[in-house]
Amino acid sequence: MVNAIIYAIPAFVLFVLVEAASFRFAPDDDERGYELKDAATSLTMGAGSQVVGFPWKFVSIAVYAAAYVYLAPFNLDVFTNETIAANPWLIATVFIGLFIADDLAYYWFHRGHHRMRVLWASHVVHHSSQYYNFTTALRQSWTPMTTLPFWLPLALIGFPPWMIFLQQSISLIYQFFLHTERVDRLPRPIEWVMNTPSHHRVHHGSNDRYLDRNYGGILIIWDRLFGTFEPEGERVRYGLTRNIDTYNPVRVAFGEYAALWRDMRGTGRLRDALRYLVNPPGWEAPDSSHSRRS
Description:
mainly alpha, Sterol_desaturase/TMEM195, single chain, lipid metabolism
């Protein structure tokens, strides 16, 4: 199974260097730019996510393959030499269908990881930097197990695992380029349909008006359709509503899990402990003596 992300790493490194140089030679007081320790932590988290994700990929492949082989009513693996030569329109139709299905799956994956705390404990890693640059895109979770259910429907529809993973890689490569302050708004038709740096800056904002907005991957139309879109207005304040203030990769990766466990242990009722798992970040049990929001 080819991981396109691996082949994109040289390009990622090049764009990080170019962006960092741009801040040095053309600084902007309204942009945060880079901070060495923060960037190093983001790069460490990115490298760690690839190491952890490698064996987990085989588990995902096995689950998706089983669903595809034994449960899918259709076989959409049309990318064969014979099919390509005989029916290129079928290829285009399947590819467009895969693109839309993957992007919709990403929207609900992303929204779920902001609205359910046990999932947020994994995703919070990506939002833990108070800077917004290309290294922020690489600040990824070390607990990728929470992604599997959201793409399982694609295998059940009939998309083979190799196509699912390829499209996931394409989406993540596109999203890398959203993590920059150096690109202002793009032309209006693009901003209306596509996810852009402006839209994604909003998503990384801890401002009240920006919380839980703009979940899209490549397309922003899902946010417009499901009522989670917010245009960029006031200056974005990056990070969390309660920042973790650490560069330790282990604490970045697992700190929210530890906080979740403390909150669950601190309540005297099993029902409330379970509600900590499934309710949004910031929810507190009625008898809680403290107020906390990630």
